[in-house]
Amino acid sequence: MSGCGGKGGDKPLTDCCSQPGLMPFEQALAQLLDSVQGGQQPVEKVHLTAALGRVLAEDLCAGLDVPPADNSAMDGYAVRVADLAAAAGKPLTISQRIPAGVDPEPLQPGTVARIFTGASVPEGADAVVMQENTERDGEQVKMPTEIPLGDHIRRRGQDIANGDAVVKAGTRLQPQHLGVLASIGIAELPCYRPLRVALLSSGDELAQPGEVAGPGQIYNSNRYSLTGLIQQLGMELIDLGTIEDTRAATIEALQGAAAKADLLITSGGVSVGEEDHIKAAVEQLGEISLWKLAIKPGKPLAFGRVGQTPFIGLPGNPVSAMLCFQVLARPVMMKLQGAGELHPKSVMLPIDYQRSKAQKRREYLRVRRVEQDGQLVLKPYTNQSSGVLTSVAWAEGYAVIPADAQIAPGDLVEFIPFSELA
């Protein structure tokens, strides 16, 4: 059951094998995102202490004002501005002391209240004078004669007003979100259950770190790079390891994974070679499309379904596998997880690079930011081969070189830091 029919999917997939040329990146990403539906994960209650990186399933609104009352932004004295003018520079008496957490008495006319940062401003006071701008003698304080109304007072609801939507559904929760939600007294959050991602490798040539690699074997780096990327996204990893290079073992592994995972990911094994069994196994169990993408590195990509479970087949070359995961698989995973923001943020920076002959593929250069003549410039790694994994370990992100573009040193290009892909 191969080809590009819509069986089991929301929308039909285009089989790029039947189309001439290479598929543009934007078209491929749009088709991938159109083929999955977001916000379908079960919702569970998660305590604030365990919610970092989780995706919020509902809008959360404030049930109170923050701050709940006018409070002082400084250590000093709560005053009535009119009393300062009337005193004409003469000392005023301290009538009460207001630390944070105390409900103050109304301010007596013609007096001041000693007040501390975060403490509630007493009724009748309309400004706070910083203690540095005063002279105290016992219970008497000499004040400036003129200060602005409302000086150094944080007004009730200044940060959050009762009823405000504070954090929106689809937000991938960061420390700042947790702090804001704590400030309105919410302890448990409705979050989508983490996406369950099954990862499997195929190839008898793959040895595991810690083993002795036999003749013709290589160590399986993709398993660990992709494991780290999946876990970094806060998703549940189902690590199936390396499966035996037979059709029967591949079918059994894919069937088992599809039964307990929300997404299947493989690296390598989807070409037309006699020992590449993943493509045939996915076709037997569901559907698959093989695309040749106009990106470099990472031209080959497979997408389909095993039963009803989406499947992504990444390239086998280590840099290609990482890149395709980050720029193609990651947005799909974010949508499946229910996240609102699917795409990384980028900035434009000058690059120390020259490409005098335009290429047909969109290129992702592994780069690092360096300072040259007082400005940040993108410096590419010397060897951009798809097999040079050390280039990714050295780099800070990707410089995106558009297809059919010539580049001269100093030209501005899009830079995607790795931090935006985590």
UniProtKB/TrEMBL annotation:
<dbReference type="InterPro" id="IPR036425">
    <property type="entry name" value="MoaB/Mog-like_dom_sf"/>
</dbReference>
<dbReference type="InterPro" id="IPR038987">
    <property type="entry name" value="MoeA-like"/>
</dbReference>
<dbReference type="GO" id="GO:0005829">
    <property type="term" value="C:cytosol"/>
</dbReference>
<dbReference type="Pfam" id="PF03454">
    <property type="entry name" value="MoeA_C"/>
</dbReference>
<dbReference type="InterPro" id="IPR001453">
    <property type="entry name" value="MoaB/Mog_dom"/>
</dbReference>
<dbReference type="GO" id="GO:0006777">
    <property type="term" value="P:Mo-molybdopterin cofactor biosynthetic process"/>
</dbReference>
<keyword id="KW-0479">Metal-binding</keyword>
<dbReference type="GO" id="GO:0061599">
    <property type="term" value="F:molybdopterin molybdotransferase activity"/>
</dbReference>
<dbReference type="GO" id="GO:0046872">
    <property type="term" value="F:metal ion binding"/>
</dbReference>
<comment type="pathway">
    <text>Cofactor biosynthesis; molybdopterin biosynthesis.</text>
</comment>
<protein>
    <recommendedName>
        <fullName>Molybdopterin molybdenumtransferase</fullName>
        <ecNumber>2.10.1.1</ecNumber>
    </recommendedName>
</protein>
<feature type="domain" description="MoaB/Mog">
    <location>
        <begin position="198"/>
        <end position="335"/>
    </location>
</feature>
<comment type="function">
    <text>Catalyzes the insertion of molybdate into adenylated molybdopterin with the concomitant release of AMP.</text>
</comment>
<dbReference type="InterPro" id="IPR005111">
    <property type="entry name" value="MoeA_C_domain_IV"/>
</dbReference>
<dbReference type="Pfam" id="PF03453">
    <property type="entry name" value="MoeA_N"/>
</dbReference>
<dbReference type="InterPro" id="IPR008284">
    <property type="entry name" value="MoCF_biosynth_CS"/>
</dbReference>
<comment type="similarity">
    <text>Belongs to the MoeA family.</text>
</comment>
<keyword id="KW-0501">Molybdenum cofactor biosynthesis</keyword>
<dbReference type="InterPro" id="IPR005110">
    <property type="entry name" value="MoeA_linker/N"/>
</dbReference>
<dbReference type="InterPro" id="IPR036688">
    <property type="entry name" value="MoeA_C_domain_IV_sf"/>
</dbReference>
<keyword id="KW-0500">Molybdenum</keyword>
<dbReference type="InterPro" id="IPR036135">
    <property type="entry name" value="MoeA_linker/N_sf"/>
</dbReference>
<dbReference type="Pfam" id="PF00994">
    <property type="entry name" value="MoCF_biosynth"/>
</dbReference>
<keyword id="KW-0460">Magnesium</keyword>
<keyword id="KW-0808">Transferase</keyword>
